[in-house]
Amino acid sequence: MNIQWQIRVPGHAPAAARRGGPPRVRTLALAGLLAGALGFGLAACRAPDPGPAPLEKGLLRLEQPYTKQKLGAGGSQDYKFHAAMRGVYLIMVYGNLTPLEITLRHPKKTCYMLGNGSCELVSGPDESYGFQINAPGDAEVLFNLMVTHSDGRGRFEGDVANPQTVEQGAEHSGTIGVYESSYYSFRAGNGGVYTIALTGARSDLLWRLFDAQKFDVILQECNANAAAADEVCQTAPLHPDTTYFVKVEERSGVPGPFKLTISGS
C-alpha cells in the first residue's frame, strides 16, 4: 500500500502540477519498473530443473519414501545404508522399464530385476551395507529406490536369475511384497493351451508370461481385475517340452500370500 503526503505552501502550485501527473501514477510506474528489473534478475539467476536429485553421498535413510534415481546408458551408482535392527532388509526398485543389476558388497550377492522387485539381505544389529546399481543397457534409466526393513507380512519369491519352479497342475503357495515381483518357471510338457490362475490374493495382482529367462519380451498378460480378485487367463498355444516363465506383480501396496496354479488343457 502506497501512502502519499502532499504539503501545500501558500503561493505555490502542488507538486503534481509542476511535474506533470499525479503522484500515484508516478509511484505505480516506478514500482512497475522495479518489479520488471527484479523479475529479469530472478529469471537470469534461476537454474534449470536438474531432474532427480542425487542422494547425499549415496546415503539411503530407511523407510523414507521412494527416491527418484537416474542412470545414464551403461552407468552405475553406489549407495549405502545403515541397519540398526537385526532382521531382513529389502533394497526395493520400482518403475524401471529396463533391466537393472544390484550388487551387494557384503555379503556378496547380485540381484537382477526388471520392473518392480527387490534384493534381500539378512542383517545383524548395527550393521552398514554398500551396494551398486548398474544399468547394463544402451539407454538412460529412470527408477525409484527405497530400502526397508521387512515386517514379514509378505516377501517376493525368486528373481530373474533364479525363478521359483512350479509343477504343472499343482497349487503353489506364493508370497509377494509391497510393489514387488515374484518370478516363476514351468515346463509345458504336452504343449497346447494352458491356464494360469492367481487366486486367494489380498491385493491387486497381475501375471505376465515370457518364453525366455531374460523376462524382457512379454508373450501375454493377465490383468482382468483392477482390485483384489482372482486373475485367471488361458494362454495362447505353447510349444511342447519348452520352459516358460511367469512374473507376478503386486499393484495395490498390500503384501501377502496367494495361490498360483498352472494347468494344461
Describe the model.
This protein has 265 residues and is mostly beta strands. It has three domains: 26 residues; 94 residues, Jelly Rolls; 101 residues, Jelly Rolls, CATH 2.60.120.380. The chain has two helices and 17 strands. Strand 13 and strand 14 form a beta hairpin. The longest helix has 23 residues. The N and C termini lie far apart (81 Å). The N terminus is likely disordered.
Structure characteristics:
single chain; 265 residues; mainly beta; Jelly Rolls; 3 domains; four-stranded antiparallel beta sheet; 2 helices; globular; disordered N terminus
Strands, count:
17
Summing up helix and strand content along with how strands pair, one would put the structural category as: mainly beta
| Count of distinct structural domains | 3
Helix content: 10-25%
Proportion of residues in extended strands: 35-45%
Instruction: Measure the end-to-end span.
Output: 81 Å
The low-pLDDT segments are: 1-21, 23-57
